[in-house]
Write a structure and sequence with these properties.
InterPro entries: ITPase-like_fam (IPR029001), Maf-like (IPR003697). This protein is α/β, with parallel strands linked by helices. The protein has six helices and seven strands.
Amino acid sequence: MILSPIYLASTSPRRSELLRQIKVDFQVLRVSVDESVQAEESAESYVKRVASMKAEAGWQVSLKDRPVLAADTSVVIDGHILGKPETDSEARRMLSMLSGRCHQVMTAVAVQNALSSHCLLQVNEVTFSALSEADIDWYIASGEGHDKAGGYAVQGLAAVFIHHINGSYSGIMGLPLFETVQLLRQVNSGEQ
């Protein structure tokens, strides 16, 4: 499978790692968009909007010679979007909410080029085991979840908390590879 070179509008090391895994030639673009949740906005709409905004922002700063790929991931429980924790106490609150429960990890992937923009949403379910205070203390002390949606990394130490996954492992990491390849093929073929 050969895909044309792209720009990646993300500095996430996980997204870069996943694209390298499937041998995509890419160049990273640093973009910044307002990721605030709008009033009455559903989690699905939020994730798709932010991914699309990142792709558009990437397109604006690119050389416009190849498609721009962007993504956004949110952890959602009881309809609440859990972003990246800014403090240890916020991380503790998030992990306590996830403890012993099933939650959703939503990742939207967007591609922008000169002719069109496309966005797909991928939704996964993750079930955590019950976490003790000691488990939460240990994980927070690791520092691993500080820059991750929901305060944890599926590919890291938090794997010991995950009882069950229904969906895409790469999607939970932040870039669902199946959907990403479908979008890139669509753009490469010139479909609108």
